[in-house]
Amino acid sequence: MLIYPQDIKEKLGIDQLFELVRIKCKSDYGVEFLEKARPSARVADIDKWLEQTAEMLRVLSSGDNLPSRDFQDLRVFIKKMRVKGTFLQAEDFATLKSLLTLLYEWTQYLKKNQTEYPELCSLTYGFIADTTLIRSIEEIVDDKGQVRDTASPELASIRAMLIQKEKAVRVAINKVLRKAIQDQFTDEDSSVTIRDGRLVIPVKAEYKRRIQGFVHDESATGQTVYLEPTEALQLNNEVRELQYQERREIARILIRLTDLVRESAEDLEKGSVFIGLLDFIHAKASFAREIEAVKPQVSKNPIIKWYQAYHPLLWLSHRESGKPTIPLSLELSRQDNRVLVISGPNAGGKSVALKTVGLLQYMFQCGFLIPVGEASTFGVFRSIFLDIGDTQSLENDLSTYSSHLTSMKYFHEMADRNSLFLIDEFGTGTEPQFGGAIAESLLEQLTSRKAFGVVTTHYQNLKKFAENTAEVVNGAMKYDVSALEPLFELEVGKPGSSFAFEIAKKIGLPEKIIENAKGLVGTSQVDYEHLLNSLEKERGSYEKLTKKLKKEEKSIAQIKTDYESLKEMLEDDRKRIIKEAKGKARQIVEEANQRIERTIREIKEHKAEKERTKKLRSNLEAYKSKQKKEEEQAAKRKKQEDLKPGDAITIEGQDTTGEIMHIKGKQAQVRFGNIISFIDLKRLSKTSNRQLKAQEKKSKKIGGINMVDKMAQFNSEIDIRGMRAEEALLKVDEYIDQALLLGSDQVRIIHGKGHGILRDVVRTHLKGHSAVSAMADEHIEMGGSGITLVTLG
């Protein structure tokens, strides 16, 4: 695969990414595989690498009790025993045993789960990994790296004899030491020690000739010598000879064991490759999990169809600092647009977007999982070209622009329909009119060669070229025009503005200079920039309206759901009430009949006594009166339940006729002429529409108050600045009541900005007011957050 320039890894940040993966490698062999990683143009290779890493990612997420991941390099031991006659030390065999165990356990695990992890399992083919060597080493060497006594009968015999002789030496030398302490030839706390591998006792220098033996050493001060007594000399010689025999026997055992392992050298070579490769894949999968990467769709054709793509290094940096990272969505294909021209203000994210494209494509063709949406598709390019940053060469005496042109010459010569070119700040470094013209000509040639590419620019001619060329598309880095701040989000389909004049104005450049600059640029150029700015504002407004519409649609859907639930509940209640009413009616009729029959019976029994009859009739009349009252109350409740918007009504105890506008809970919003008020439903009675029309023809004087004069004198705003909270809320309540009485639908409450305390108190209070439907800040030019617009209704 063709890559240009040679330092593309440094320019795109791939070396930094590889370093993060290198840290996760456990072995030198794994690091070597990483360092050899290069992008491939073979689809089969890329797909295999991606699937290996994806399978390892699933392994790590499986929750299985996995084999050890302490990968080490087996080649160290293979190299040591390569020469015949050489042998591994006991501690080498202890490490080798753990590695062979790791090799065996991983091969068994992958073979057991072959259906789920076929690509990883295929790495185990071609070599034997069993427990034969492991058992052979286990029989000879223990886990601490010591040769076992049972490694051979000779070693067992030598060590048994050695123990006996060492015991005899200690007995003899301890006897001499006790006598020396008794004769005060040495200190009372002295003990047997070792010098040159032989047991000795410390003796004061002036008494060294009082004890027969051989002096091996003396203290730093010369006041103490370390003496081997004659009684232990021969025994120590025998111990030393046994130690030599032990070493020779251990060497013989280890040579034999090394020869046994050497017979499996070919399998060990392949096993070492497996462990190294597994370590590398494991490191890639661990990094993929860290950056939340996935395996995208793979296409053999050159194509870019990415959704929610992230620059991994930027994402890690932002995550650490708690900042959000804006994803990139992009599509380049042969059928539609193959070249993207990104424009926009400086520091708006153009170069980051371009680097993201280069880095992710490089990662993909190296077999790394990518931080994108799973529906994304990556195609394969046979060459990737990059021109970014200042590549001025002092050795070749090339200027910045000359070095850019050198790159462009290479792109022009080598680019084809399978190439991806990435050019940052296309055409800069020389006079704009010439640099822009050459850049446009080069872009036209690259487009004619059917190459794919992403370029960033400030030049208007390149934006217009993209607009007028079918295979080239404009792209803009979004910008908050009102705040003059970049949003770092790519929008494909329209060019971006540099916002040069707006930024200059924001930082305080004098207006005279800005206006003069506009004149120097020319009317058409300024108009073009103005048009782009207007489009940006329109887009911002459209997005806000779209979000508002979606929110309202969601609210309407919720209201509809609530309405359906309420309707169902009311229908159930209606059926229940009718049933209960019928039962109550039957009960009343039965009770009334019983009372009448009982009254008649008692009158007959008492032979129509005057007082008794009078009392019974009185009781019956009282019962009838009670029932009549209950019926009237029930009828009144029924009448209230039947009230609905549009009905003509009167207030209990008054002759005024009005119309119901809305019903909210137990209250109704009622209009009396130009007056709108909220009244409890229980105070309302339904009347005829004819009476309502007659009422509307009467004078607008109500209760002795001239409503026309009141409405003319009413002020649509109230100023509560400087008031205490309690006083302000009282004034606001009185003002809202007056506004409702006069039928006003919107008022302004002036509370000032300050720390926003009075504003928050007023708004919190009005949230619970049944007549308040909405609150908002006044327009910025008319007071902004210092004034609250209150909508009534």
Automatic annotation (TrEMBL):
GO terms for molecular function: ATP binding; ATP hydrolysis activity; ATP-dependent DNA damage sensor activity; endonuclease activity; mismatched DNA binding; ribosomal large subunit binding; rRNA binding. Residues 718-793 form the Smr domain. ATP binds at G344, P345, N346, A347, G348, G349, K350, S351. Its EC number is 3.1.-.-, 3.6.4.-. Pfam families: MutS_V, Smr. Residues 628-645 have a biased composition (Basic and acidic residues). GO terms for biological process: mismatch repair; negative regulation of DNA recombination; rescue of stalled ribosome. The keyword Heme does not apply. Keywords: ATP-binding, DNA-binding, Endonuclease, Hydrolase, Nuclease, Nucleotide-binding, RNA-binding, rRNA-binding. SUPFAM superfamilies: DNA repair protein MutS, domain III, P-loop containing nucleoside triphosphate hydrolases, SMR domain-like. Residues 607-650 are annotated as: Disordered. The keyword Nucleotide-binding applies. Transmembrane segments: none annotated. Gene3D superfamilies: 3.30.1370.110, P-loop containing nucleotide triphosphate hydrolases. Belongs to the DNA mismatch repair MutS family. MutS2 subfamily. Homodimer. Binds to stalled ribosomes, contacting rRNA. Endonuclease that is involved in the suppression of homologous recombination and thus may have a key role in the control of bacterial genetic diversity. Acts as a ribosome collision sensor, splitting the ribosome into its 2 subunits. Detects stalled/collided 70S ribosomes which it binds and splits by an ATP-hydrolysis driven conformational change. Acts upstream of the ribosome quality control system (RQC), a ribosome-associated complex that mediates the extraction of incompletely synthesized nascent chains from stalled ribosomes and their subsequent degradation. Probably generates substrates for RQC. NCBIfam families: mutS2. This is Endonuclease MutS2.
